[in-house]
Amino acid sequence: MEQPHPSAGPEAPLAELRDQIDAVDKQVMDLLARRLELVAEVGELKGQHGLPIYAPERERTMIAARRTEAERRGLPPDLIEDVLRRCMREAYAHEKNLGFTRQSPDLGPIVIVGGAGQMGQLFGRMLRLSGYEVRELDRDDWDNSQQLFDGVGMVLVSVPIHDTVSVIHQLPPLPADCLLVDLTSTKLAPMEAMLQVHEGPVLGLHPMFAPDVDNLAKQVIAYVPGRHPDASTWLLEQIRLWGARLHEVSAQDHDHAMGLIQAQRHFSTFAYGLHLIREDRSLDELLALSSPIYRLELIMIGRLFAQDPELYADIILSSPDHLELLDRYHERFAEALEILRAGDREAFIARFREIGAWFGPSAERFMAESRTLLAHADAQR
């Protein structure tokens, strides 16, 4: 019996529709390419006129307008927002190499101590894109340090946490108007050391991101004013041009917050990883049985162990206050465990509500934000 030709079966109209979809996809790619061309023109104008690459009000207004337009046209607003935000991330990455207005035209050379490290390289690249002369000093360069520091306008210390204070004390005498800055994730000890060794302007910075970011748009950099804050205004403005958000904080408040944000979180992840290997379950099985939220948790746990263990040891052990904080965390974990041992359902619910009240309206906002993260994690399966 003669078999029907595939083009005569149900696949024929499906193939035609797929061809039309392919054609639309090509049109979308053409439009995206044109959008990037326009982004490049915008980036050049921003660089010429000293405008930051990240304009939050413009972004909010544009997203709101596109969502309204999507609803009017019967399109899912969340879909349109997702597409646009992905386009904007690419736009920020595209703009990062286009150059920035130099905020301190008369500044002398900048020396980055630890310039070969990842964070030092990132700041070196951004400073060069902004028109500054950047010199690097690393472990093997101290014999030539006097030449490197000749006429220096800023010294940026970007070395491992456990080396920061000792490196600061090794610095040669700096010009009185030289700005001394550090990038360490602790602030009390480095700030004290910089104020001791240098009588001129001092500023503490802490980039709240890893050095492998595509660009600085929307990234947060904490800053601690030291001596002569007016002398560091140009640097803060330069960082804003790069698209970063700045948050002023005292050294003491910074280090206490980092105990919660970094030391406790990283130690909890370390302990969770230790617990997982001692339970001796197959990671593949856990992933196969994971809900989107647990898969995302495993991703964040695994992410830690793909990185430098020395860095995280330094972060957790950088302050004796961290141990006291972790002791308090241990006590509260034990307190919560006692509620379970007692089978006290009402006490658990009461504590749950108490914590929910502390989060307040942010809990609902976090719920909405997490849906996007979970959808993205699920789509990567």
TrEMBL record:
Domain Chorismate mutase: residue ranges: 8-99
One GO term describing the cellular component: cytoplasm
SUPFAM superfamilies: 6-phosphogluconate dehydrogenase C-terminal domain-like, Chorismate mutase II, NAD(P)-binding Rossmann-fold domains
Residue ranges of every copy of the Prephenate/arogenate dehydrogenase domain listed in the record: 108-370
Keywords, sorted A to Z: Isomerase, Oxidoreductase
PROSITE patterns: CHORISMATE_MUT_2 (PS51168), PDH_ADH (PS51176)
Gene Ontology molecular function, alphabetical: chorismate mutase activity; NAD+ binding; prephenate dehydrogenase (NAD+) activity; prephenate dehydrogenase (NADP+) activity
GO BP terms, alphabetized: chorismate metabolic process; tyrosine biosynthetic process
Enzyme nomenclature, EC number: 1.3.1.12, 5.4.99.5
Family matches, as InterPro entries: 6-PGluconate_DH-like_C_sf, Chor_mut/prephenate_DH_T, Chorismate_II_sf, CM_dom_sf, CM_II_prokaryot, CM_T, NAD(P)-bd_dom_sf, PDH_C
NCBIfam families (alphabetical): CM_T, PRK11199.1
Family: Belongs to the prephenate/arogenate dehydrogenase family.
Listed name of the protein: Bifunctional chorismate mutase/prephenate dehydrogenase
Organism this protein belongs to: Ornithinimicrobium ciconiae
Lineage: Bacteria, Bacillati, Actinomycetota, Actinomycetes, Micrococcales
Gene transcribed to yield this protein: tyrA
